[in-house]
Amino acid sequence: MKTITAFYLNGCPYCRNAKAALQELIQEEPAYSKVPVEWYEETEHPEAVKGHSYYYVPSLFIDDEKVYEAQPGQNYDTIKGYVKQALDKALQ
Fold first, then answer.
1. Residue 1 resides in a domain
2. What span, in angstroms and rounded, lies between the C-alpha atoms of 15 and 2?
3. Which residues contact 58 (CB under 8 A, 6 or more apart)?
4. How many domains are there within the chain?
5. What is the structure's pLDDT at 68?
6. Local structure of 72: helix, strand or coil
7. Is residue 7 situated within a structural domain?
């Protein structure tokens, strides 16, 4: 199992949706609760951002691989689908 590193910004609606989706997915599939997810607010933890290439948040990484980067206009269901893909990949 791998750790998901997640970057977000306070006040970001897409980030809020990603966090809510994560909690919903854990309720739907308890195995997801075993996946370590490390959330970093990018302005509070600039050292954690180094070496990770992204423009939009939330952005999710497994090791150095970007597995999701939000795009403007994405709705909750789309974000939830990408968070699920990241969780599934982390469980492999």
1. no
2. 21
3. 6, 7, 8, 12, 14, 15, 18, 68, 69, 70, 79
4. 1
5. 98
6. coil
7. no
* Residues of the domain holding 32: 23-91
Supply the pLDDT for residue 7: 98
Provide the residue type at 67 as one letter: V
Residue 19 CA to residue 52 CA, distance in Å, equals: 20
Residues of the chain with pLDDT under 70: none
Cα–Cα distances in angstroms (integers) from residue 81 to residues 18, 38, 42, 47, in the given order: 10, 19, 23, 29
Given a contact cutoff of 8 angstroms between Cβ atoms, the answer to whether 66 and 60 are in contact is yes
Q: Among all chains, which residue has been given the structure tokens 């939000």?
A: 70
Q: Is residue 87 part of a domain?
A: yes
**Which residue do the tokens 């997810």 mark?**
37
Length of the chain in residues, anyone? 92
Residue 69 domain-assigned? yes
DSSP 3: P
In terms of DSSP bridges, do strands 4-8 and 37-41 run parallel, antiparallel, or are they unpaired?
A: parallel
